[in-house]
Amino acid sequence: MQSIQPETKQRIEELRKLLSQASYAYYVLDNPTIEDAVYDKLYRELQDLETQYPELITPDSPTQRVGEKPATGFTSVRHNIPMYSLENAFDVDELKSWDERWRRNAPGQDNVDYVCELKIDGNALALTYENGVLVRGVTRGDGVSGEDITQNVRTIRSIPLRLNLDDIEIENRDALQTIEVRGETFLPLDVFEKINQERLSSGESQFANPRNATAGTLRQLDARKVDKRRLDFFGYTLQIPGVDDASIAKNQWEALELLHKLGFKVNPNKQLCHSLDEVAQYYQHWDTERLNLAYMTDGVVVKLNSLILQQELGFTNKFPRWAVALKYAAEEAPTRVDNISVNVGRTGALTPLAEMQPVQLAGTTVSRATLHNCDRVAQLDIRVGDTVIVRKAGEIIPEVVRVLKELRPENTIPFEMPVNCPVCGQPVVREKGEAVTRCVNTSCAAILKGSIEHWVSRNALDIRGMGEKVVHQLVDKKLVNSVADLYELTEETLANLERMGQKSAQKLIDAIEKSKSKPWSRVLYGLGIRHVGSSIAQTVTEKFDSVEKLAAAKVTDIEAIYGIGVEIAESVYKWFRVEANQTLIERLKNQGLQFVETRPAASSNINKKLEGKTFVVTGTLPSLSRDEAKELIQKFAGKVSNSISKNTDYLVVGENAGSKLTKAEKLGIAQLSEEQLLEMVKQ
């Protein structure tokens, strides 16, 4: 091994520092400090030294941003702290409603400040730094787990490979050993246009919008291709797993300032607002000015400035209560209706759809829009050939909002909903008081396809490999006529389907067999009874622990369950009175599906201890996932809640527990480890 002179090491460190500072000034501050030619010369010098002394190469060196070897794939990584989505508001009135809701959860708040930031239309990332060095970059994914794309993240110049910790004044510096920064990566509009021009020239299809282009870029296996795309990044959240946010910064505004000091690009158009009126003014200003920005924004993110108040309010099962995404007014555009078709859904609902000349809306190409139901069609008086105004707000399905009747051609014909199902040809019905027209033929191919897709879905029987294309083939080839037929399929039958093969067929047979062990609550949800979602199914099966008990229940018995209204109760009651449904239940029982909720013996003292107790699960447990821990608690008659309150009996705590732990400590709620929970349910 060759000896390395101290001055060589020193020069390498100097070059890294110089290049990192220059990169920060250029990409984050937008204020170049050295000429490009000088930067290139220094970069080449560092590159030559590292080639000569490869043992001195470090992960945070500027030369290590772009890897030479393409990745073979991306692995799934569980987030230390879930990446929640935000509740949407589409106007100032809805913003005020959000403000009223959080105030009901935290009464007595008078002088409240709000932090407003532009909502960047890109892709969220979670970046993990250990001892100041970037070690992991993960996509949002489903909010619980995402893909590890660290190799690609390193190519984004506005993401520092090493944090600037030297000038940080903070009481708890030890907390900065492991931190997570979240933000939005995006494509500037001029870069997006350049990419599309290049794709057009090379005969490739163009990206529909910058967000899609960003997502596609992040999933490239070759980081060199990602580097050429020149993605950008704005940081918006600093989180330290297991550490109270208030010990890092006094408030949200201070946290953004700290992010900037650490070396991140923070959106310069943020604003600290001292009233809801100021928030509304900020929103209205950027609703117009956003057209002059170099990137796409689809709204404003409003957060309560106080981190203590954020912790107190906590989260629903989907959103933080202390933040809202105030979306810009829906985009509208005129187009012509070429046809009006009717779609048949899983419940038999007939939905009219306007098929239109393609039009660009909210960054996407729109050629179909919902007309909702026959009442809406009559109200619009929409006809084939009409020029209409179509609207798309955020991710909402495009809809026709009005017809420009002054442009209507002669001899157009009013549209009428079909009296027979467009799929099976059977008569349709419209129940009194309902706006929806339905096909009630349980053998209808459209209903059958939807029912099976629902049955095999993740929250129901979770039959992996049974995708939409497989389901459609099975129904179209008349291989299945109900969900019960799935359990009579053979490997040979499945192997003959398009793009299946012997190996995939065997995996699918195994997945079907595995689904037989899913609990009664999952089966009830999978049956697809109107108004019965997964949480309602769980609630119902806690009261009626077998299908026989539920089938024999009266409407009043079902309605008596807390949280179950008369509409749900009547829907469940009617479903079990249908002879075809009774036959289906018997077939599924004979095939080994679970129609009894498995509970411990009544004599078990441990079971009695969990009965009537409410649990909340937080953090990452050593061996159980959160869902597994919740199922275990429910199996032994305990109740599970998503939020801490005075009615909570136990908080099951794992690593990187967040605000729930803080609130539990304030309320004096008992804490359990995974080991203690398992001990409680041990027989």
Overview of this structure, please?
- It catalyses: NAD(+) + (deoxyribonucleotide)n-3'-hydroxyl + 5'-phospho-(deoxyribonucleotide)m = (deoxyribonucleotide)n+m + AMP + beta-nicotinamide D-nucleotide.
- Keywords: DNA damage, DNA repair, DNA replication, Ligase, Magnesium, Manganese, Metal-binding, NAD, Zinc.
- Belongs to the NAD-dependent DNA ligase family. LigA subfamily.
- With 683 residues, the chain is an alpha+beta fold.
- It folds into 5 domains: 6-56, Helix Hairpins; 87-327, D-amino Acid Aminotransferase, Chain A, domain 1, CATH 3.30.470.30; 332-416, OB fold (Dihydrolipoamide Acetyltransferase, E2P) (Beta Barrel), CATH 2.40.50; 445-591, 5' to 3' exonuclease, C-terminal subdomain (DNA polymerase, domain 1), CATH 1.10.150.20; 614-681, 3-Layer(aba) Sandwich (Rossmann fold).
- 36% of the residues lie in helices and 19% in strands.
- Strands 12, 13, 14, 15, 16, 17 and 18 form a 7-stranded antiparallel β-sheet that branches.
- Strand 13 (349-361) and strand 14 form a beta hairpin.
- Residues 600-606 have low confidence and may be disordered.
Key words describing this protein structure:
single chain, 683 residues, alpha+beta, Helix Hairpins, D-amino Acid Aminotransferase, Chain A, domain 1, OB fold (Dihydrolipoamide Acetyltransferase, E2P), 5 domains, 7-stranded antiparallel beta sheet, 5-stranded mixed beta sheet, globular
